[in-house]
Amino acid sequence: MKVAFLGLGIMGRPMAANLVKAGHEVSVWNRTHGKTVEGATSAATPAHAARNAEVVWMCVSDTAAVENVLFGESGVEQSLRPGMIVADSSTISPASTLEFAKRVRAKGADYVDSPVTGSKIGAEAGQLIFIAGGAEDTITRLQPLFSAMGKQVLHMGDTGKGQSAKIAANLMIAMIYEGFAEGLTLAQKLGVDPERLVGLVQASMIRSGVVDYKAPFVLKRDYSPNFPLRLMHKDIHLVLDAAQQLGLKLPGIGAVEHVYEESVRAGHADDDYAATLAVIEKWAGTE
Q: Is the separation of the CB atoms in 18 and 34 below 8 Å?
């Protein structure tokens, strides 16, 4: 298929590379110049990248970035035509997703929200899980691309449900990890060896995929970004915004947001979100 891939960050670049490896004809664009994908053609603007594409796939940082890529100066909107599909693997506002989809469909194209889980390692290995919202037949048309980049597609419902499920999932990830970070800090303060605590976690009902993935990095205090803290902080704000719109009280994630705010102030914005542990340890005097 002819694909315009827009956004070559930690996730986007390996995703686009996997599309090329699968034999698709790929045109790429990135906001900051200099990033390329071997085997893909580079475009100067989103509109240029999308000019001859059957599918436009986005993976950018936030809601404002998606809006700009689609509808800004030299945006994809200029190249939309009937039969095209726009797929968004960014994690953004569900409410804005509905607005963007309406504007895209007014041009005769269709829209699928398809945020991902699997982090940097999953993107590089082509083992992402796509959390999709949109028409079933449109998602079926995208299956060759999903298969090139991931191992599973979970269809959550109509447009916006992919983004809704993704921010709910990230709420849980942030809170599970924060529980681990606080438990680890408490255990160290009480004199328990961290590796032994991790062994307990992995041998008991406390075990989770979040801890399995993060523990090897955390034990070495390696905060190299697989999922940058600033992006998880952004997703927590998406959760809180959605809760406010719905009149929901979510006190747990509100407390976690405070930890993220302090982590950003401490200079950890571009570290992995596991670096919230550094702030908890600082407060505890166990750095």
A: no
166 is catalytic: yes
Token duo for residue 124:
């590089």
Structure tokens at 204: 């008991």
DSSP 55-84: EEEE--SSHHHHHHHHHSTT-GGGG--TT-
Q: Is the separation of the CB atoms in 30 and 61 below 8 Å? A: no
Cβ atoms of 94 and 66 within 8 Å: the answer is no
Task: Exactly one of 21, 166, 189, 249 is catalytic; name it.
Answer: 166
How many residues are present in the chain?
A: 287
Residue-wise pLDDT tens digits, 86-138 = 999 999 999 999 999 999 999 999 999 999 999 999 999 999 999 999 999 99
Instruction: Give yes or no for a contact between 117 and 153, defined as CB atoms under 8 angstroms apart.
Output: no
Cα distance between residue 76 and residue 86, in whole Å:
9
**Which residue in the block uniquely carries the two structure tokens 């060759």?**
144
Torsion of CA 65, 68, 70, 73, to 10 degrees: -150
User: Which residues sit opposite 228 in a β-bridge?
Assistant: 272
* Domains, the chain: 2-158 (3.40.50.720), 164-284 (1.10.1040.10)
Instruction: Give the span between the Cα atoms of 121 and 126, in whole angstroms.
Output: 9
* CA pair distance 1, 13, nearest whole angstrom: 18
- In the predicted model, is pLDDT for residue 63 greater than 90? yes
Interstrand relation of 55-58 and 128-133 (parallel, antiparallel or unpaired):
unpaired
| CA 277 to centroid of chain Cα atoms | 21
